[in-house]
């Protein structure tokens, strides 16, 4: 195994178990590793400190272990078994009424660069690092052994998440099985999962708890679900007794999937309508007086350089909602941009409320669910921010 040696003093973050080693911390290498290769890391005093995946870029090593151990199928089986035990402990795995959950959440499960979502009998695996891509078949075998028949298919979906400079020419496809059954269950509601062409792994698993909270606020309300994607918030609102639910997304494919999901749970229900429309245009021209609005846009900032424009976008979007919502209305508003922290997001929403001239109260502060855990040594893993607001 090739060795990487750090500059003097650059081992401090690793001694605090932070799982990233940046390129500027590296003094020299025994020889140049291949991208995705497993390497050992040593301090400037030649003391072993970590083992991880090497990758060209700002984050040059993603640490897999701070113990001197072999990264093989047995290693992955242990990490996956611990991750599954966590999901059983928090009550999202092993339930007939909930066959949807995140099994592996990167650094949060001490497997940086790896995401695995479970949808019924299918696990969708996604690599965000070259190292996890290289190890994909070993991980698939480990996953099959750990799940012990709970899953029958493993779909690998990493075309858009791997670094393009690595030039891997990766194509999505099944590593195990190949079943076309795309229906999963979340808290008793059914939905189609588009892991072939959909965003992320096919569904936004991270909003499960927030969708449940919305259900309790929906009775008798006229609900507008902006950026609806596959309609998750919409059919929770319908089960909660909403008077009507309108779903909006700029993608016609998303609207088609939303309609299919609503029909799957509430066949023939006329309370729901869906619109393929730009969000800002719809808010400008809307005629229905909504009293519950969900704002769950895609990430406005993929990196820190886009932060200023992202905050302007969040302010503009929330201002529109505050201006349009009826008195006594509820707004569920979110940011999934990792570059936007809680304080930035709240400032943007507060600015929107002030600009709209509405009195606004915070009812709930929302975040990602427990199956998207945050490694205490890696606070960067906290990405989902949300507020539930009462608007006078």
Structure description:
The protein is an alpha/beta fold. The chain has 3 domains: 3-65, PUA domain (Archaeosine Trna-guanine Transglycosylase, Chain: A, domain 4), CATH 2.30.130; 73-187, RNA methyltransferase domain (HRMD) like (Transcription Regulator spoIIAA); 204-391, Vaccinia Virus protein VP39 (Rossmann fold), CATH 3.40.50.150. 28% of the residues lie in helices and 27% in strands. It is built from 10 helices and 20 strands. Strands 16-15-14-17-18-20-19 form a 7-stranded mixed beta sheet, with helices on both faces. It has a 6-stranded mixed beta sheet with strand order 2-6-5-4-1-3. A hairpin with a 2-residue loop joins β12 (183-186) and β13. The chain is globular and about 65 Å long. The protein starts with a strand and ends with a strand.
Q: Please identify the top-level CATH class of the largest domain.
A: Alpha Beta
Counting structural domains, the number is 3
CATH-level-2 architecture of the largest domain: 3-Layer(aba) Sandwich
Strand order of the largest sheet: 16-15-14-17-18-20-19
Distance linking N and C termini = 63 Å
Q: What is the mean predicted local confidence, pLDDT?
A: 93
**CATH topology (fold) name of the largest domain:** Rossmann fold
Supply the helix-strand structural class: alpha/beta
Q: Ranges with pLDDT <50 over ≥5 residues?
A: none
Major sheet characteristics: 7 strands, mixed
- Radius of gyration (CA) equals 22 Å
**Helix proportion range:** 25-40%
* H-E string: EHEEEEEHEEEHHEEEEHEHEHEHEHEHEE
**Beta-strand residue fraction:** 25-35%
The CATH homologous superfamily of the largest domain: Vaccinia Virus protein VP39
User: How many β strands by DSSP?
Assistant: 20
Instruction: Note the overall shape.
Output: globular
Total helices: the number is 10
